[in-house]
Design brief:
The structure is a single chain. By secondary structure, the protein is mainly α. The chain is built from 12 helices and 3 strands. It has a 3-stranded antiparallel sheet with strand order 1-2-3, with no helix packed on it. It is globular, with a radius of gyration of 23 Å. The mean pLDDT is about 85.
Length: about 290
């Protein structure tokens, strides 16, 4: 159902499978292999979550496990295999509301513009990675999923496939376009030299497999370049996406426009994703409050 109806990514399907396997092993270990599915109650689920806490898992990990169990029981109820979902009675752990520190516009410009320095494994490709992640606000998985045919030069747009395989077009800015034009001839030369072909836009250096770069490799590239230019050690591809939304908001972009660009279904997600800087709040106060002047 996850894969075919909800069009969930293979990563999501594996994650749900892993969480449900853990819960199933807990039930078997504590109640035996013949314990009927219909006998599972909310107390059993709470007990399992308590065990996860006991193993040192944080609230986010426990909440993820509960989400998988809740989704599974909801499906079982729709199929008539259980009368109602016991997971509905289990409260989700309250997660702390924190956002990662977002690099400033100046910091991002410095890193992006020097992403193709001599220390990079494939400088032109790595510059394109930064320009696309920060310049287009796309997810890591969306980035590595881009094919050469998805670049629509005439419309200055890129077709990306987001969560649930939903497609959207994002603008291809001048800087990203320039980086791609510098990278593409080298990409073609590498494929030709190896006697290979690949639909993937971003290739790994050794053309392993089908040549497509992986999300894990992108994470390593981003962290390495960010650290080399004095940014925080927790820098990762999603930080660039977060910076994209935050910086657009700081520069006056409409929240709904940012929502469309990021591919969020709900505006509330975009609101959590962006943050106002202290300077911007002070500037708005100074400009608008009658007692501030």
């Amino acid at each position: 159902m996850l894969a075919h109806e909800r069009k969930a990514s293979p990563h999501t399907v594996r994650a749900y499978e892993r969480e449900l396997q853990g819960f199933a092993e807990f039930v078997v270990k504590n109640f035996g292999t013949k314990f009927a599915l219909t006998r599972i109650e909310h107390q059993h689920i709470r007990s399992y979550l308590g065990q996860l806490y006991g193993r040192g898992l944080g609230k986010a990990s426990v909440a993820r496990a509960l989400a998988a169990i809740r989704s599974w029981f909801k499906w079982l109820a729709r199929q008539g295999l259980v009368e109602q979902s016991p997971a509905a009675l289990v409260a989700t752990p309250k997660l702390p509301k924190h956002l990662p520190r977002v690099p400033t516009i100046e910091e991002m410009n410095r890193v992006v513009e020097s992403a193709d320095d001599d220390g990079a494994a494939w400088p032109e490709r790595d510059r394109a990675i930064f320009e696309l992640l920060y310049g287009c606000g796309i997810r890591n998985a969306e980035l590595v999923g881009i094919d050469l045919a998805d670049i629509h030069w005439a419309n200055e747009a890129i077709l990306v496939r987001g969560k649930g395989r939903k497609e959207r077009h994002v603008p291809l800015g001048d800087a990203a376009a320039e980086a791609l034009r510098a990278y593409l001839p080298l990409r073609e030369a590498k494929l030709a030299g190896a006697g290979k072909s690949s639909p993937a836009l971003l290739l790994n250096v050794r053309l392993r497999g089908n040549g497509r770069l992986t999300t894990r490799s992108v994470g390593r590239i981003v962290k390495k370049i960010a650290l080399a230019h004095g940014l925080a050690a927790d820098m990762h591809p999603h930080t660039l996406r977060h910076a994209f939304g935050t910086h657009m908001l700081e520069e006056g972009a409409d929240l709904r426009a940012i929502q469309e660009l990021l591919g969020h279904e709900r505006l509330s997600t975009t609101q959590r994703y962006t943050q106002l800087t202290v300077g911007q709040v002070a500037e708005v106060y100074d400009r608008t409050h009658p007692r501030a002047r």
